[in-house]
């Protein structure tokens, strides 16, 4: 998995959406203490930056060293490389020890995790009582009916190259936001030119996986079709990422 994002770390930093400040305000209200937060699968640190406004220290970890080299710096964020070879005990000690973390967040990354192992570590790290796990991501984007239709046709060609690991996490969290099986719906607006849109989709893991199989999902003809649906390629348009969040205590 790390290799997929190593190859496009700089594109990822530039293209991915910024999560709204109110999300972090909501999460901060859920935890009685604000000493330590852990951002798991931090990538370039977009979520860690938001959390750092509310917590004294943020430990931000990733298995990709290339992503961490592109991470946004902040005086309260400590970025750490956590290879899969780390044992659970090593990871717990690295983050801060048992019963030490107020908030654990996972932003658009939980689908990569070994969930039973992850939840075991989370339960050891979260403060009792009061520690919270928050998981969020986005699964769709909207521009307008014309572009949405063209984007959907193209997206369907990417489906064979997405991560096939589809473990469900929704039933494993005793909720404080959203409800079991029905996460809180949250929109993430972002202003993009067509070039910005293309950089965003180029950051997808499916694009890198397809290239490894000799398939170009963004051929010249495909890009032209998307550009025509966009309209004037120089026009900046509002993309709305259709986000979701679930936050609460781990109960598995």
What report would you give on this structure?
- This protein is of the alpha/beta class.
- It has eleven helices and eight strands.
- The chain has helices spanning 2-6, 9-15, 21-30, 46-51, 65-69, 88-95, 115-125, 145-158, 194-202, 205-212, 220-230; strands at residues 36-40, 57-62, 77-81, 103-107, 132-142, 173-177, 184-192, 237-250.
- Helix 2 crosses helix 9 and helix 6 (88-95) packs across helix 7 (115-125).
- InterPro entries: Methyltransf_11, SAM-dependent_MTases_sf.
- This is Methyltransferase type 11 domain-containing protein.
- Residues 39-134 form the Methyltransferase type domain.
- Report Rg: 19 Å
Largest sheet, strands/sense/barrel = 8 strands, mixed
Q: Give the low-pLDDT segments.
A: 2-7, 166-175
Beta-strand fraction estimate: 15-25%
Q: Quick check: average pLDDT?
A: 85
Q: What's the count of strands? A: 8
Determine the number of helices (DSSP H or I, runs of at least 4 residues).
11
| Cα-to-Cα separation, first versus last residue | 25 Å
Structural class: alpha/beta
Quaternary state of this entry equals single chain
State the order of secondary-structure elements, H for helix, E for strand. Answer: HHHEHEHEHEHEHEEHHHE
């Amino acid at each position: 998995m790390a290799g997929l994002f190593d190859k496009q770390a700089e594109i990822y930093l530039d293209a991915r959406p910024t999560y709204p400040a109110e999300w972090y305000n909501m999460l901060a209200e859920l935890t009685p203490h604000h000493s330590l937060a852990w951002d798991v699968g931090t990538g370039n640190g977009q979520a860690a930056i938001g959390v750092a406004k509310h917590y004294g220290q943020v430990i931000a970890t990733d298995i990709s060293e290339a992503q961490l080299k592109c991470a946004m710096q902040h005086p309260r964020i400590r970025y750490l490389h956590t290879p899969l070879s780390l044992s659970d005990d090593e990871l717990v000690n690295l983050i801060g020890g048992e019963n030490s973390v107020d908030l654990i967040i996972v932003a658009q990354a939980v689908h990569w995790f070994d969930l039973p192992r992850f939840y075991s570590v989370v339960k050891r790290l979260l403060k009792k009582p009061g520690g919270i796990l928050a998981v969020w991501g986005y699964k769709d984007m909207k521009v307008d009916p014309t572009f949405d239709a063209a984007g959907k046709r193209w997206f369907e060609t990417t489906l064979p190259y997405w991560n096939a690991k589809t473990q469900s996490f929704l039933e494993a969290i005793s909720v404080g936001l959203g409800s079991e099986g029905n996460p809180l719906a949250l929109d993430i607006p972002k202003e993009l030119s067509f070039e910005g849109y293309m950089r965003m989709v180029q950051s997808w893991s499916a694009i890198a996986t397809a290239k490894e199989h000799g398939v170009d999902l963004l051929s010249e003809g495909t890009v032209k079709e998307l550009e025509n649906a966009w309209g004037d390629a120089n026009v900046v348009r509002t993309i709305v990422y259709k986000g979701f969040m679930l936050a609460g205590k781990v109960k598995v």
